[in-house]
Task: structure prediction
Amino acid sequence: MSGYLEGILVLLAVNVVFAYGGFLPLAAGQLNLGLAGFAAIGAYASAYLSNVFKLSPLIAIPSAGIIAGLVALAVAVPVLRTRGIYLALATFALGQIVQAIILNLEIVGGAAGYPVAAFIRFPTIAAVAVIVVLLVWLLFGTRFGIAVTAVHDDERVADLMGIDVRAFQIAAFALGSAIAGVGGGLYAHHFSFIEAQYFNISLSITIVLYVLLGGTQTVLGPLLGAAVFTLLPEVLRASANWRYVVFAAALIVIMALRPEGLVTGAQLRRLFGWHRGGPGEAGVDAAKERA
Amino acid sequence: MTAAAAILCFEAVSKHFGGLRVIEDLTFAVRPGTRTALIGPNGAGQTTVFNLITGVYPVDTGRIRLDGADITDSPSRRRIGHGVARSFQNIRLMPHLSTLENVMVGQHCRNKGIGGVLQPVNLIPRNRWRTEARAALAEAGLGDYERATVGSLPYGVQKRIELVRALMARPRLLLLDEPAAGLNPAETEALQMQLERICAGGDLTLLVVEHDMHFIGALCEEVIVLDFGRKIAEGTPGEIRRNTLVQETYLGAPAAAPMEPHGAARSA
Result:
């Protein structure tokens, strides 16, 4: 495999993992703009565990995911008290705090960055990405998926149906953060060097865009969103410096045409002939746009 | 009627929103297995009564008992576990879930703990909960809509789905908020038959907010009349129709709106 191709595929796999980290809270109706912070926690934790304790990346990366998830669980209770735009701001601040702490943490190199000794190649990263996608798909095939969507759609009714709204929001937030942590671990071990500056707000926003572009309603959405986001700029490489302009324009067109994302639940149901109800579904789809 | 014999008991309940007295010193009891209508002019407080029973709002004063247990301070999420489920005046199904998934939301309160949450309802076609929800939809004549996105379905169908969802909680007390509103006569009749069927066992108690007096006459044996948050009358549908105060405040003069009982054959 050429270095260029492997580079793209690694980025694709890591971005897919990141996308599922953003998908879980969004599926529960929450915007987490602190994802880069949890990715950083995962990256640094995994690097530290393998550098200092000589753990294999295959153990260090999942452990780093668990650490990121536990940190998320600890901060979820105060942070998830806020909602809407305030939640977005609170999680954004959280990401900034993590970045600032790492910059001042000399034990992991501080502002100079942190080299990572243990190296993993594309097949390992791809396998982990496949496992993450499968686990999220399995999870959303259980009552968890229904409950999380119910919380997203109507918190009040979900509550009256006996669904513990806060517990599901916290679970989605923590699980998403754990997945972002795994993504960070994969990144660290492939690129062999990490620095706090990489895990900035634009990473968080990009991750959220993967999910919004792909669609938050189905487990397929983030996969497609991450793929389009990673591959489209490469395809547009021929247009040289104009590619980001073309790319941004393409995104706006996609968002205008498919405001609920590239894949929606209703669309899948129609595609697989599941829909046997009344006509006019397409029109209602448009009216039910996700805010 | 003693409070112990009642499935639902309001004891001097008041609820104010700022200076607005929505419910004022309201006391009533609903006997188990009966069908009771809660009527009154729009804004008389019927939906607020439902919101107080289900814990959407806390009461200001008074107590609410369900089957003898005081649920006044029980959090809204736990009330469905006490056996009370409801439908909503404006349909509130989950727009991003299919019909079947919406119905399965109703089972949530019976799926406790991690094991319940991780039930593979959408992974295994023969999952017990999935089978139960499909059977309930089929029994209600809604089997064809199983996989449909609920938002695309006709209004009357959505209302019936909401009813099936509420029943999946296996409630002992079912609160229906204007179930017949917006339905055409055929749909109203279908709803009435569906309600007769689900009440046939005698275990379910119905409390219905409704304006259609024909519907009430055919379905309910008890009527409670509210006006400005106070109870102004209670009795059988026949008694309520003859009540002068109710005629003045709500039903209108007998001559203007003849109240020929639709369910005249039923022993009042």
Residues 255-268 of chain B have pLDDT under 50 and may be disordered.
